[in-house]
Fold this protein.
Amino acid sequence: MFEISQTAYQKKWSVFAMSVPIFVEIGLQMLVPNMDQFMLSHYSQQSVAAVGNDNMIVNMIILTLSVLSQAATILIAHYRGSGDIRGASRVCSVSLALNLVLGALISIILFACHDFFLRLLGIPAEIWEDAALYLRWIGLFIVVQSAYMAFISFLRGFGLLKETMICSSLMNVLNICGNMILIHGLGPVPSLGVAGVCLSTNTAKVLGLLLVIHFLHKKTPLRLSLAHLRPFPKKTLGRLLYLGIPSAGETFSYNLSQTTLMTFVNLFGVAVITTKVYAYIIAMISYLYSQALAMATQILVSYFKGAGDNGQVDRQVKFTIFVSMILSGTLAVLVFLHSDRIFSIFTEDPQVHALGRTILFIDIFLEIGRAVNMCMVMALNAAGDVKAPITVGVLFMWCVSVLGGWFFGVHLLWGLAGIWLAMALDECSRGLVFFWRWHQGVWRRELI
Protein backbone atom coordinates (compact mmCIF):
# COMPACT_ATOMS: atom_id res chain seq x y z
CA MET A 1 0.00 0.00 0.00
CA PHE A 2 2.96 2.29 0.56
CA GLU A 3 4.61 2.00 -2.86
CA ILE A 4 3.87 3.64 -6.18
CA SER A 5 4.39 1.04 -8.91
CA GLN A 6 7.51 1.15 -11.04
CA THR A 7 5.27 1.25 -14.11
CA ALA A 8 3.81 4.58 -12.95
CA TYR A 9 7.29 6.05 -12.65
CA GLN A 10 8.26 4.88 -16.09
CA LYS A 11 5.35 6.44 -17.95
CA LYS A 12 6.54 9.49 -19.85
CA TRP A 13 3.50 11.55 -18.90
CA SER A 14 3.71 10.75 -15.17
CA VAL A 15 5.69 13.96 -14.70
CA PHE A 16 2.49 15.88 -15.41
CA ALA A 17 0.45 13.77 -13.00
CA MET A 18 3.08 14.43 -10.32
CA SER A 19 3.46 18.12 -11.13
CA VAL A 20 -0.20 19.07 -10.62
CA PRO A 21 -0.36 18.48 -6.84
CA ILE A 22 3.13 19.97 -6.49
CA PHE A 23 1.94 23.03 -8.40
CA VAL A 24 -1.04 23.47 -6.10
CA GLU A 25 1.14 22.86 -3.04
CA ILE A 26 3.94 25.31 -3.81
CA GLY A 27 1.45 27.83 -5.14
CA LEU A 28 -0.42 27.79 -1.87
CA GLN A 29 2.82 27.66 0.12
CA MET A 30 4.04 30.83 -1.58
CA LEU A 31 0.63 32.40 -1.16
CA VAL A 32 0.95 32.37 2.64
CA PRO A 33 3.39 35.31 2.81
CA ASN A 34 2.13 36.87 -0.41
CA MET A 35 -1.48 36.64 0.71
CA ASP A 36 -0.37 38.54 3.80
CA GLN A 37 0.89 41.31 1.52
CA PHE A 38 -2.23 41.26 -0.66
CA MET A 39 -4.62 41.50 2.28
CA LEU A 40 -2.49 44.18 3.91
CA SER A 41 -2.67 46.22 0.66
CA HIS A 42 -6.24 47.10 1.66
CA TYR A 43 -5.07 48.08 5.15
CA SER A 44 -1.88 50.11 4.59
CA GLN A 45 0.62 50.54 1.73
CA GLN A 46 3.36 51.08 4.32
CA SER A 47 2.54 47.71 5.87
CA VAL A 48 2.91 46.11 2.45
CA ALA A 49 6.35 47.67 2.02
CA ALA A 50 7.38 46.52 5.52
CA VAL A 51 6.23 42.92 5.06
CA GLY A 52 7.64 42.83 1.51
CA ASN A 53 11.08 43.75 2.80
CA ASP A 54 10.92 41.24 5.66
CA ASN A 55 9.84 38.47 3.33
CA MET A 56 13.06 38.91 1.38
CA ILE A 57 14.84 37.64 4.51
CA VAL A 58 12.22 35.11 5.59
CA ASN A 59 11.88 33.61 2.09
CA MET A 60 15.66 33.39 1.75
CA ILE A 61 15.85 31.35 4.97
CA ILE A 62 12.83 29.17 4.21
CA LEU A 63 14.00 28.40 0.68
CA THR A 64 17.49 27.52 1.93
CA LEU A 65 16.05 25.13 4.53
CA SER A 66 13.70 23.77 1.88
CA VAL A 67 16.60 22.92 -0.40
CA LEU A 68 18.34 21.11 2.46
CA SER A 69 15.14 19.10 2.86
CA GLN A 70 15.11 18.34 -0.86
CA ALA A 71 18.33 16.40 -0.31
CA ALA A 72 16.25 14.01 1.81
CA THR A 73 13.67 13.70 -0.99
CA ILE A 74 16.44 12.81 -3.45
CA LEU A 75 17.93 10.14 -1.20
CA ILE A 76 14.54 8.67 -0.21
CA ALA A 77 13.49 8.32 -3.86
CA HIS A 78 16.93 6.89 -4.66
CA TYR A 79 16.66 4.28 -1.89
CA ARG A 80 13.16 3.42 -3.07
CA GLY A 81 14.49 2.90 -6.57
CA SER A 82 16.97 0.39 -5.15
CA GLY A 83 14.38 -1.13 -2.73
CA ASP A 84 16.04 -0.05 0.54
CA ILE A 85 13.26 1.23 2.85
CA ARG A 86 15.43 0.92 5.97
CA GLY A 87 17.95 3.29 4.43
CA ALA A 88 15.13 5.72 3.65
CA SER A 89 13.98 5.70 7.29
CA ARG A 90 17.52 6.45 8.44
CA VAL A 91 17.71 9.40 6.04
CA CYS A 92 14.45 10.81 7.46
CA SER A 93 15.61 10.63 11.08
CA VAL A 94 18.89 12.38 10.34
CA SER A 95 17.23 15.00 8.11
CA LEU A 96 14.61 15.88 10.73
CA ALA A 97 17.25 16.27 13.44
CA LEU A 98 19.27 18.55 11.16
CA ASN A 99 16.24 20.71 10.29
CA LEU A 100 15.19 21.08 13.92
CA VAL A 101 18.64 22.21 15.04
CA LEU A 102 19.04 24.70 12.20
CA GLY A 103 15.45 25.95 12.52
CA ALA A 104 15.76 26.57 16.26
CA LEU A 105 19.04 28.44 15.81
CA ILE A 106 17.62 30.68 13.07
CA SER A 107 14.46 31.39 15.09
CA ILE A 108 16.50 32.63 18.04
CA ILE A 109 18.70 34.81 15.83
CA LEU A 110 15.79 36.48 14.00
CA PHE A 111 13.84 37.13 17.19
CA ALA A 112 16.79 38.53 19.12
CA CYS A 113 18.71 40.32 16.33
CA HIS A 114 15.96 41.63 14.06
CA ASP A 115 17.34 45.19 14.16
CA PHE A 116 20.55 44.02 12.48
CA PHE A 117 18.69 42.62 9.49
CA LEU A 118 16.43 45.67 9.16
CA ARG A 119 19.44 47.99 9.11
CA LEU A 120 21.09 45.70 6.58
CA LEU A 121 18.11 46.16 4.24
CA GLY A 122 18.05 49.91 4.77
CA ILE A 123 14.42 49.91 5.92
CA PRO A 124 12.90 53.44 5.76
CA ALA A 125 11.96 54.92 9.15
CA GLU A 126 8.24 55.13 8.31
CA ILE A 127 7.90 51.35 7.99
CA TRP A 128 10.43 50.31 10.65
CA GLU A 129 7.92 49.48 13.41
CA ASP A 130 5.80 47.15 11.27
CA ALA A 131 8.90 45.54 9.75
CA ALA A 132 10.38 44.83 13.21
CA LEU A 133 7.13 43.33 14.48
CA TYR A 134 6.70 41.00 11.49
CA LEU A 135 10.33 39.82 11.35
CA ARG A 136 10.47 39.00 15.07
CA TRP A 137 7.32 36.92 15.30
CA ILE A 138 7.40 35.24 11.90
CA GLY A 139 11.10 34.55 12.50
CA LEU A 140 10.38 32.93 15.88
CA PHE A 141 8.32 30.23 14.16
CA ILE A 142 10.96 29.35 11.57
CA VAL A 143 11.65 26.20 13.60
CA VAL A 144 8.06 25.07 12.99
CA GLN A 145 8.39 25.82 9.27
CA SER A 146 11.68 23.93 9.16
CA ALA A 147 10.14 20.81 10.70
CA TYR A 148 7.15 21.09 8.34
CA MET A 149 9.44 21.21 5.30
CA ALA A 150 11.32 18.15 6.51
CA PHE A 151 8.13 16.08 6.74
CA ILE A 152 6.91 17.40 3.38
CA SER A 153 10.17 16.25 1.79
CA PHE A 154 9.67 12.75 3.24
CA LEU A 155 6.18 12.51 1.71
CA ARG A 156 7.50 13.73 -1.64
CA GLY A 157 10.17 11.04 -1.61
CA PHE A 158 7.36 8.49 -1.50
CA GLY A 159 5.39 10.22 -4.23
CA LEU A 160 2.59 11.22 -1.82
CA LEU A 161 2.03 14.52 -3.54
CA LYS A 162 -1.72 14.78 -3.00
CA GLU A 163 -1.11 14.67 0.74
CA THR A 164 1.40 17.50 0.61
CA MET A 165 -1.12 19.47 -1.45
CA ILE A 166 -3.80 18.94 1.20
CA CYS A 167 -1.46 20.22 3.92
CA SER A 168 -0.61 23.39 2.02
CA SER A 169 -4.27 23.95 1.13
CA LEU A 170 -5.35 23.74 4.74
CA MET A 171 -2.56 26.06 5.87
CA ASN A 172 -3.50 28.66 3.27
CA VAL A 173 -7.22 28.55 4.05
CA LEU A 174 -6.52 28.95 7.77
CA ASN A 175 -4.15 31.83 7.06
CA ILE A 176 -6.66 33.66 4.86
CA CYS A 177 -9.48 33.20 7.37
CA GLY A 178 -7.25 34.39 10.18
CA ASN A 179 -6.18 37.45 8.18
CA MET A 180 -9.78 38.35 7.36
CA ILE A 181 -10.61 38.41 11.04
CA LEU A 182 -7.45 39.86 12.53
CA ILE A 183 -6.13 42.47 10.04
CA HIS A 184 -9.22 44.69 9.96
CA GLY A 185 -11.00 43.24 12.98
CA LEU A 186 -14.36 41.49 13.14
CA GLY A 187 -17.02 41.92 15.80
CA PRO A 188 -15.33 42.01 19.22
CA VAL A 189 -11.91 41.25 17.65
CA PRO A 190 -9.92 44.51 17.24
CA SER A 191 -8.00 45.51 14.10
CA LEU A 192 -4.45 44.19 14.57
CA GLY A 193 -2.85 44.92 11.20
CA VAL A 194 0.61 43.33 10.90
CA ALA A 195 0.28 41.73 14.34
CA GLY A 196 -2.84 39.92 13.11
CA VAL A 197 -0.92 38.61 10.10
CA CYS A 198 1.75 37.18 12.40
CA LEU A 199 -0.83 35.46 14.60
CA SER A 200 -2.81 33.86 11.77
CA THR A 201 0.29 32.81 9.78
CA ASN A 202 2.01 31.14 12.74
CA THR A 203 -1.16 29.36 13.84
CA ALA A 204 -1.60 27.95 10.33
CA LYS A 205 2.01 26.70 10.33
CA VAL A 206 1.56 24.79 13.60
CA LEU A 207 -1.64 23.09 12.42
CA GLY A 208 -0.02 22.25 9.07
CA LEU A 209 2.87 20.57 10.86
CA LEU A 210 0.52 18.39 12.91
CA LEU A 211 -1.32 17.29 9.75
CA VAL A 212 1.82 16.39 7.80
CA ILE A 213 3.08 14.29 10.74
CA HIS A 214 -0.24 12.41 10.66
CA PHE A 215 0.10 11.67 6.94
CA LEU A 216 3.67 10.42 7.32
CA HIS A 217 2.68 7.92 9.99
CA LYS A 218 -0.47 6.76 8.18
CA LYS A 219 0.69 6.64 4.55
CA THR A 220 4.34 5.49 4.61
CA PRO A 221 6.39 2.66 6.11
CA LEU A 222 8.88 5.23 7.43
CA ARG A 223 9.44 5.14 11.17
CA LEU A 224 11.45 7.93 12.73
CA SER A 225 13.54 6.74 15.64
CA LEU A 226 16.37 7.95 17.86
CA ALA A 227 17.85 4.49 17.30
CA HIS A 228 18.78 5.68 13.82
CA LEU A 229 21.00 8.28 15.47
CA ARG A 230 22.89 5.79 17.70
CA PRO A 231 25.62 5.33 16.70
CA PHE A 232 25.35 8.54 14.74
CA PRO A 233 25.14 7.73 10.99
CA LYS A 234 27.94 9.97 9.75
CA LYS A 235 27.74 8.46 6.28
CA THR A 236 24.05 9.34 5.93
CA LEU A 237 24.65 12.86 7.22
CA GLY A 238 27.54 13.17 4.78
CA ARG A 239 25.28 12.23 1.86
CA LEU A 240 22.63 14.71 2.94
CA LEU A 241 25.19 17.47 3.28
CA TYR A 242 26.89 16.50 0.01
CA LEU A 243 23.60 17.06 -1.81
CA GLY A 244 22.15 19.70 0.49
CA ILE A 245 24.94 22.17 1.18
CA PRO A 246 25.75 23.04 -2.46
CA SER A 247 22.02 23.18 -3.27
CA ALA A 248 21.28 25.29 -0.20
CA GLY A 249 24.31 27.43 -0.96
CA GLU A 250 23.05 28.12 -4.48
CA THR A 251 19.59 28.97 -3.15
CA PHE A 252 21.00 31.09 -0.33
CA SER A 253 23.24 32.96 -2.76
CA TYR A 254 20.30 33.64 -5.07
CA ASN A 255 18.12 34.98 -2.28
CA LEU A 256 20.98 36.97 -0.77
CA SER A 257 21.57 38.55 -4.18
CA GLN A 258 17.84 39.34 -4.34
CA THR A 259 18.05 40.90 -0.88
CA THR A 260 20.99 43.00 -2.06
CA LEU A 261 18.99 44.10 -5.07
CA MET A 262 16.18 45.04 -2.68
CA THR A 263 18.53 47.49 -0.99
CA PHE A 264 18.94 49.16 -4.40
CA VAL A 265 15.15 49.24 -4.82
CA ASN A 266 14.78 50.86 -1.40
CA LEU A 267 16.77 53.84 -2.68
CA PHE A 268 13.87 54.81 -4.95
CA GLY A 269 11.13 55.21 -2.31
CA VAL A 270 7.97 53.46 -1.13
CA ALA A 271 6.13 53.63 -4.51
CA VAL A 272 8.91 51.72 -6.29
CA ILE A 273 9.23 49.28 -3.36
CA THR A 274 5.51 48.58 -3.59
CA THR A 275 5.72 48.08 -7.38
CA LYS A 276 8.56 45.60 -6.90
CA VAL A 277 6.58 43.65 -4.29
CA TYR A 278 3.51 43.45 -6.54
CA ALA A 279 5.56 42.60 -9.65
CA TYR A 280 7.27 39.77 -7.78
CA ILE A 281 3.91 38.31 -6.75
CA ILE A 282 2.52 38.64 -10.28
CA ALA A 283 5.64 37.08 -11.84
CA MET A 284 4.93 33.90 -9.90
CA ILE A 285 2.05 33.24 -12.27
CA SER A 286 4.61 32.66 -15.02
CA TYR A 287 7.00 30.32 -13.25
CA LEU A 288 5.09 28.36 -10.60
CA TYR A 289 4.04 25.49 -12.85
CA SER A 290 7.50 25.24 -14.37
CA GLN A 291 8.86 24.98 -10.85
CA ALA A 292 6.38 22.18 -10.15
CA LEU A 293 7.52 20.35 -13.30
CA ALA A 294 11.14 20.75 -12.21
CA MET A 295 10.39 19.35 -8.75
CA ALA A 296 8.49 16.40 -10.21
CA THR A 297 11.40 15.77 -12.56
CA GLN A 298 13.82 15.86 -9.63
CA ILE A 299 11.90 13.05 -7.91
CA LEU A 300 11.86 11.01 -11.13
CA VAL A 301 15.57 11.62 -11.78
CA SER A 302 16.37 10.43 -8.23
CA TYR A 303 14.25 7.32 -8.67
CA PHE A 304 15.70 6.42 -12.08
CA LYS A 305 19.23 7.04 -10.83
CA GLY A 306 18.56 4.58 -8.01
CA ALA A 307 17.33 2.08 -10.60
CA GLY A 308 20.40 2.74 -12.80
CA ASP A 309 18.45 4.07 -15.82
CA ASN A 310 20.48 7.05 -17.09
CA GLY A 311 18.76 7.00 -20.49
CA GLN A 312 15.39 7.69 -18.91
CA VAL A 313 16.96 10.45 -16.79
CA ASP A 314 18.28 12.24 -19.89
CA ARG A 315 15.00 11.97 -21.79
CA GLN A 316 12.95 13.20 -18.85
CA VAL A 317 15.10 16.25 -18.21
CA LYS A 318 15.17 17.41 -21.84
CA PHE A 319 11.43 16.91 -22.16
CA THR A 320 10.76 18.98 -19.04
CA ILE A 321 13.01 21.83 -20.19
CA PHE A 322 11.20 22.03 -23.54
CA VAL A 323 7.74 22.11 -21.96
CA SER A 324 8.77 24.56 -19.21
CA MET A 325 10.21 27.11 -21.63
CA ILE A 326 7.01 27.13 -23.71
CA LEU A 327 4.72 27.37 -20.69
CA SER A 328 6.69 30.05 -18.83
CA GLY A 329 7.17 32.19 -21.94
CA THR A 330 3.50 31.97 -22.93
CA LEU A 331 2.24 32.80 -19.44
CA ALA A 332 4.67 35.71 -19.12
CA VAL A 333 3.38 37.19 -22.38
CA LEU A 334 -0.25 36.82 -21.24
CA VAL A 335 0.55 38.45 -17.90
CA PHE A 336 2.21 41.39 -19.66
CA LEU A 337 -0.74 41.87 -22.01
CA HIS A 338 -3.12 42.03 -19.03
CA SER A 339 -0.78 43.89 -16.66
CA ASP A 340 -3.15 46.79 -15.91
CA ARG A 341 -6.00 44.50 -14.92
CA ILE A 342 -3.71 42.42 -12.73
CA PHE A 343 -2.13 45.41 -10.99
CA SER A 344 -5.63 46.78 -10.39
CA ILE A 345 -6.19 43.89 -7.99
CA PHE A 346 -3.64 45.52 -5.70
CA THR A 347 -3.79 49.25 -6.45
CA GLU A 348 -5.10 51.90 -8.85
CA ASP A 349 -1.95 54.03 -8.54
CA PRO A 350 -1.04 55.06 -12.14
CA GLN A 351 2.64 55.30 -11.24
CA VAL A 352 2.66 51.67 -10.12
CA HIS A 353 0.77 50.57 -13.24
CA ALA A 354 3.15 52.35 -15.63
CA LEU A 355 6.30 51.00 -14.01
CA GLY A 356 4.71 47.57 -13.62
CA ARG A 357 4.04 47.28 -17.38
CA THR A 358 7.71 47.88 -18.14
CA ILE A 359 8.80 45.34 -15.54
CA LEU A 360 6.45 42.63 -16.83
CA PHE A 361 7.72 43.10 -20.39
CA ILE A 362 11.30 42.48 -19.27
CA ASP A 363 10.01 39.59 -17.19
CA ILE A 364 9.04 37.65 -20.35
CA PHE A 365 12.71 36.99 -21.08
CA LEU A 366 13.55 36.45 -17.42
CA GLU A 367 10.94 33.69 -17.07
CA ILE A 368 12.16 31.75 -20.11
CA GLY A 369 15.65 31.68 -18.64
CA ARG A 370 14.35 30.86 -15.17
CA ALA A 371 12.40 27.87 -16.54
CA VAL A 372 15.62 26.31 -17.82
CA ASN A 373 17.52 27.10 -14.62
CA MET A 374 14.98 25.58 -12.26
CA CYS A 375 14.88 22.30 -14.16
CA MET A 376 18.64 22.10 -14.70
CA VAL A 377 19.59 22.90 -11.10
CA MET A 378 17.19 20.33 -9.65
CA ALA A 379 18.11 17.68 -12.21
CA LEU A 380 21.87 18.17 -11.77
CA ASN A 381 21.55 17.99 -7.98
CA ALA A 382 19.33 14.90 -8.10
CA ALA A 383 21.78 13.17 -10.47
CA GLY A 384 24.73 13.96 -8.20
CA ASP A 385 26.42 16.77 -10.14
CA VAL A 386 26.18 19.22 -7.24
CA LYS A 387 29.20 21.44 -7.92
CA ALA A 388 28.05 23.02 -11.18
CA PRO A 389 24.85 24.68 -9.87
CA ILE A 390 26.53 26.53 -7.01
CA THR A 391 29.65 27.46 -8.98
CA VAL A 392 27.78 28.82 -11.99
CA GLY A 393 25.01 30.25 -9.82
CA VAL A 394 27.19 32.31 -7.48
CA LEU A 395 29.31 33.64 -10.34
CA PHE A 396 26.40 34.81 -12.48
CA MET A 397 24.12 35.99 -9.65
CA TRP A 398 26.68 38.41 -8.30
CA CYS A 399 28.59 39.38 -11.44
CA VAL A 400 25.56 39.73 -13.72
CA SER A 401 22.49 40.25 -11.53
CA VAL A 402 23.84 42.29 -8.61
CA LEU A 403 26.58 44.24 -10.39
CA GLY A 404 24.33 44.67 -13.41
CA GLY A 405 21.47 45.77 -11.16
CA TRP A 406 23.69 48.42 -9.59
CA PHE A 407 25.02 49.56 -12.99
CA PHE A 408 21.70 49.72 -14.83
CA GLY A 409 19.44 50.58 -11.91
CA VAL A 410 21.51 52.90 -9.71
CA HIS A 411 24.42 54.17 -11.81
CA LEU A 412 22.46 54.75 -15.02
CA LEU A 413 19.35 55.70 -13.01
CA TRP A 414 17.10 53.25 -14.86
CA GLY A 415 15.61 52.31 -11.50
CA LEU A 416 13.59 49.14 -11.07
CA ALA A 417 13.56 48.48 -14.84
CA GLY A 418 17.36 48.40 -14.90
CA ILE A 419 17.46 46.03 -11.95
CA TRP A 420 14.94 43.70 -13.62
CA LEU A 421 16.96 43.80 -16.85
CA ALA A 422 20.07 42.62 -14.99
CA MET A 423 18.08 39.78 -13.42
CA ALA A 424 16.86 38.70 -16.88
CA LEU A 425 20.41 38.68 -18.27
CA ASP A 426 21.49 36.54 -15.31
CA GLU A 427 18.74 33.95 -15.77
CA CYS A 428 19.20 33.60 -19.54
CA SER A 429 23.00 33.31 -19.45
CA ARG A 430 22.93 30.79 -16.60
CA GLY A 431 20.40 28.66 -18.48
CA LEU A 432 22.73 28.36 -21.47
CA VAL A 433 25.67 27.35 -19.28
CA PHE A 434 23.65 24.72 -17.40
CA PHE A 435 22.38 23.16 -20.61
CA TRP A 436 25.96 22.86 -21.85
CA ARG A 437 26.95 21.28 -18.52
CA TRP A 438 24.22 18.65 -18.85
CA HIS A 439 25.60 17.60 -22.25
CA GLN A 440 29.01 17.06 -20.64
CA GLY A 441 27.50 14.04 -18.83
CA VAL A 442 29.17 14.42 -15.43
CA TRP A 443 25.79 13.56 -13.88
CA ARG A 444 26.01 9.98 -15.25
CA ARG A 445 28.31 8.85 -12.43
CA GLU A 446 26.94 7.01 -9.39
CA LEU A 447 25.16 9.19 -6.80
CA ILE A 448 25.67 6.99 -3.71
In short: Confidence is low (pLDDT under 50) at residues 1-6.
